[in-house]
Amino acid sequence: MDKLVIRGGNPLLGTVRISGAKNAALPCMAAALLTEEEVILENIPQVRDIETTRRLLSAMGAEVELGYGRAHHRTTIQARTLNAPQASYELVKTMRASTLVLGPLVARCGRAHVSLPGGCAIGARPIDLHIKGLERLGAKIATEHGYVEATATRLKGAEIVFDKITVTGTEDLVMAATLADGETVMQNCACEPEVADLADLLNKMGAKIEGAGTSIIRVKGVARLHGAKHRIIPDRIEAATFIIAGALTGGDINVTGCEPAHLTSLLQKLQEVGVKTTHASESIRVMGDTPHKAADVNTEEYPGFPTDMQAQYMALATQADGTSIVTENIFENRFMHALELVRMGANIKIEGRRAIVRGKTPLSAAAVLASDLRASASLVLAALVADGETIIDRVYHIDRGYEHIEEKLKGVGAEIRRIGEIFPKRRGANG
Ligand code: EPU
Fold first, then answer.
1. What φ, ψ does residue 262 adopt, rounded to 5°?
2. Which of 70, 202, 250, 389 is most buried, by the most CB atoms less than 10 A from its CB?
3. Beta-bridge mates of residue 348
4. What is the number of alpha carbons within 13 Å of residue 403 lying toward its C-beta?
5. At what angle do helices 193-204 and 22-31 cross, to 10 degrees?
6. Which atom number of ligand 1 is nearest to the Cα of residue 192?
7. Is 218 close to ligand 1, i.e. is its CB under 6 Å away?
8. Using one digit for the tens of pLDDT, what is the confidence trace for 15-55?
């Protein structure tokens, strides 16, 4: 299993380019199931979850080409026929977002057989709201042997009010509603830019969606969707992670190819902390050479402070002067990184949904364990300022959502390497 080895102490300097958003690319790939024509997606990040989605769609009978070489950030998907409209437990357990195929499959094929996701490192994360919404659209749902079996002759437009804001739940039902008979009005929808990006693609495919990116979305069902070409939005969480890396290391980096408008809550918080940033239309420069002071953070749905940045912010808070209270409101168990940060010398106390971070404490390198994608990013950040060489185990978590993180960090001056094979391949042994 790969590990990352990071020697802390270097201020990050230079330019880093941001990849396409994993959490926009995943629903957009699922949307390709809604048509038999070709869907071309550009700015696809090279991360493991994309490869998992390729396997998921291929197993149903779709042709999925993930480009290599010059075309390596593009995928072409053609779901001419879907002879196996299902998502197996094997795939759903490695990537919960596999449940995004539920809505498109019922809408297109009239049936879907999708594994229920089990427990998760960051919280319970059920999919009851996806299921309730599909029932409102007229699908018959049965759950058996750990699988959801959804059937419908044709879905029917309906009014849906989400009990709770859910990102993939909103996306799943928007996709389902595109091919329903009549109008669907959804309230209390997720406003994340990734939802709006998905709706942009769907509208290019011939859907009639209004209001995506706000809490009320209206979808006028159409009889069929066609092929389209679409460019995925930049990854705001990757951009935010590099911005914090620049601030934390006292560096000066230019984060390019990003969308500053998607990062307002983070940039405001950093201003409170005392981090200097400036931005142009597609880039943000961060200058970390000022003293940082503590500031409380509450995770919220977009446009609030993202839960996907809570762990990385906590690494920054360990190096700010004073006490920061970090409150996690979205997931009930998203503090696993705190315990590893404590092993590196941080002073963090967990009280239910709150983490009390007392700074500034020097961090010292240690062997640490990544528990989920964003937790691993937090450990990478802490390692960049720790004294000595940190070894982060289970980096497959980070590979799920950050494209070539060690190369990007190396490019701005970090001392980082990946170690993996205990018995390295002999030269020439494998071509
Ligand atoms: N929830 C329910 N029932 C449902 C669905 C959600 O109770 O049917 C609850 C969840 O348990 C959670 C809250 O609602 O407490 C919000 O969950 P949401 O459904 O919004 O999360 P998600 O759609 O499963 C997406 C991202 C996550 C991100 C969350 C919150 C994708 C593929 N995943 O997950 O990203 O943390 O929204 O913003 O878009 C990550 O990239 O590391 C990641 C975990």
1. -85, 0
2. 202
3. 357
4. 20
5. 30
6. 38
7. no
8. 999 999 999 999 999 999 999 999 999 999 999 999 999 99
